[in-house]
Amino acid sequence: MVSKIAAHKIDCVVGARPNFVKIAPILRALRSRAGLSPRLIHTGQHYDATMNAVFFDELEIPDPDLNLEVGSGTGTEQTARIMLKLEPVLASRKPDLVVVVGDVNSTMAAALVAAKLNIPIAHVEAGLRSFDRAMPEEINRLVTDRLAQRLYLTERSAMKNLVKEGVDEEAIKFVGNVMIDTVYACLPRAVPARATLLDYLSRSHAAKEAIEHGFAYVTLHRPSNVDDPERLRSLIGTLVQISQKICLVWPVHPRTAAMIESVGLERRLGEGRIVSTAPLGYLRALGLMREAKFAITDSGGVQEETTALGVPCLTVRENTERPVTVEQGTNLVVGTSAAALVAAVDDILATGGKAGRVPALWDGKAAERIVEDICEFLGMKSVG
After folding, report:
1. How many domains does the chain fold into?
2. Using CB atoms within 10 A as the burial measure, which of 75, 87, 154, 163 is most buried?
């Protein structure tokens, strides 16, 4: 009797909204390959339904096999709780590989636990650097990349960063961007902007104008922008000023909403032509992004998505870990000066904004390349 060869066990760990967008195509590719047994573990870092369940549904991600339900807390508290809950889970199954994506606390925590258990780690979106260690995400990236055995790059500039840090070139693979895999897969189902804005006609005087005359799309959630009351007050004042030129549609992140309420800025927000909404599902957000005149953001993902969509993007930060979106795409890093942001908006309204091109390997097939490399790493025969 011929014995059946056991499938290779792969644990994919996610915790926050950007992770869900990135893991969706990877899970599909893993599940389509014979000889692999993937398991999805959700740490519960994002637990609000608007940041969580709706994404699993729209991205057609199966329910997680496990939800650790760690909830909120400081970065250190959250990381520690993830590690404590994840260690027995990984120790019990002993997977052949742990796959982590992005740069959130769940990413680093999972990498630390896997490393201590001598389980190989694959990091999707490796090598990105802002060179700003005041950003929690930068610490998460640095630690995860030092521990990983497979490092998958979204852009070629990341290779230089990793080699300079002493990472073995054999472990590094330029595969493209799984975030863009999801953009292309979901575009046919994206909800038209008009359909979303119609839901807000009775609550926002600006919704009708946005439908009739166009709008800009806003996302802001970075601690450097929203945690300091004076910085947040200044930023909202600038958005109100910009909204006199063009309507803004702003799905407000729970973190940002809590700060707006605590500082008492709701009334100030209402002074502008701003359609503020609760966090939106991916298909509604994608529809708004696609039809926006431009985006104002501090999100890494939006920088990439707008580049893929050909929509001008103004990044309200002093740096970006995604330089390809500036060098080749539609992104412009405007810094944190109100005057610079207003000037950049004026330029877009006058000229149409920055044109760009889609970077190499942002072709919707990054997940397939990742899974092919995982199979080679695990000693499986190529399907090619």
Report:
1. 2
2. 154
Range of the domain at 220: 192-351
| Beta carbons of 256 and 222 less than 8 angstroms apart | no
Alpha-carbon distance 96 to 37, whole Å?
A: 10
Cβ-based burial of 27 (10 A; exposed 0-12, middle 13-18, buried ≥19): buried
User: Is 2 within a domain?
Assistant: no
pLDDT digits (tens, 9 = 90+) for 355-368: 999 999 999 999 99
Beta partners for 131? none
The letter for the amino acid at 126 is: A
Task: From 319, 340, 315, select the one nearest 330 (Cα to Cα).
Answer: 315
CA distance 262 to 249: 22
Q: Catalytic residues, which ones?
A: 221
Q: What pLDDT score was predicted for residue 50?
A: 56
